[in-house]
Amino acid sequence: MKLRVKLLLLLGLLPLAWGGPALAEDVYSPRTLELARQLQCPVCGGQSVADSNSELARQMRDIIEQKVQAGETDQQIRDYFVSRYGPSILASPPKSGFTSTLWWVPVLAIAGGGVILALFLRERTHAPLPGAPTHSTDISDEELEQVAREALGVDSQREVQAT
Questions:
Q1: Prediction pTM value
Q2: What is the DSSP letter of 87?
Q3: C-alpha span between 27 and 99 (Å, rounded)
Q4: Which domain CATH number covers 27?
Q5: CA 36, CA 158: separation in Å to the nearest integer?
Q6: For residue 16, what pLDDT is reported?
């Protein structure tokens, strides 16, 4: 008789062992889980309240579910958690004020660097080669003759006297 009771008890508990504990998706409404995904777990780095297995995350999911059942809006529920934990509780912080600056600084830095690089390359490609004359090379015929005489060592004074 005792063996039958143990066997029936074991067979009755077997489905529980296979099914395991109830998943969060089974306990909470889809809206609760969506809101929980929008909040960061304060004790688990990088995990949302929906994904975390911590006790605090479970309590937060319970609070969200209660507020959903009470008819509060999504914004009211998010504001409730922001008032207790600060804006860092949000998985996607608002892009306004100081956080807006944090979003735009890298974009502006990259754009500014690109402008500086473009100006540098433009100046570099248009700069004369080292040693090249920086003035105009258009000279008159008279100046060219003068340079030729000086190069050949002909004294212009002697020519003038010869004529």
A1: 0.47
A2: G
A3: 35
A4: 1.10.8.640
A5: 103
A6: 47
What is the count of structural domains for the chain?
2
Of 66, 12, 14, 70, give the one whose Cα is nearest residue 36. 66
Cα–Cα distance between 65 and 78 in angstroms, integer?
A: 13
Candidates 131, 97, 116; CA nearest to 87 is 97
Q: Are 57 and 65 in contact (CB under 8 A)?
A: no
Contact 49/82 with Cβ under 8 angstroms? no
Residue 18: the pLDDT is: 47
The verdict on residue 162 lying in a domain is no
Q: Is the CA virtual torsion 5, 11, 15, 16 positive or negative? A: positive
- Among residues 74, 106, 101, 66, the alpha carbon closest in space to that of 90 is found at 74
Spans of the chain, pLDDT less than 70? 1-26, 93-99, 127-137, 154-163
Please give, one letter per residue, the 3-state secondary structure of 16-45.
Answer: HHHHCCCCHHHHCCHHHHHHHHCEECCCCC
Note the maximum CA span of the chain: 150
Q: What does the DSSP 8-state code read for residue 91?
A: S
Tokens of 3: 């063996």
